[in-house]
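Deliverable D5.2: sample structural annotation.
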Amino acid sequence: MATDPEGLQGATEGSEDGTENSADNGEARNVYFNIPLPPEALDENGHPAVLFNRNKIRTAKYTPLSFIPKNMWYQFQNIAMDYFLFLVILNVSSSFSRSPLLQNCRAEAADRSSASLAL
């Protein structure tokens, strides 16, 4: 039996109106839950003889890979978040960062260095 590289052998495609036409190919599909496949459903290597498309349904909003990009996208949908990002950029920028606490720290450091030079 030839192998199907895409795993589409035996899978049914929908008709033009969107309904599934599984009866057209003449094969019935048996589904086995929590039991091994019978020998007639296996090929000579012990793998399933007919492969069907995956039917996985993901109900989570995020995956580990998409958490940060999607979260940032949803956060910045709110216009207020753009304003706060702008304020953060201004505060982090050295040309606009003139908070009193920072100026006091710089003045004290300058005073210590000049006092140590005077000694």
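Annotation notes: The chain is about 35% helix and 0% strand. The chain has two domains: 1-56, 67-118.
The annotation will be released with the project's public dataset once the embargo ends.
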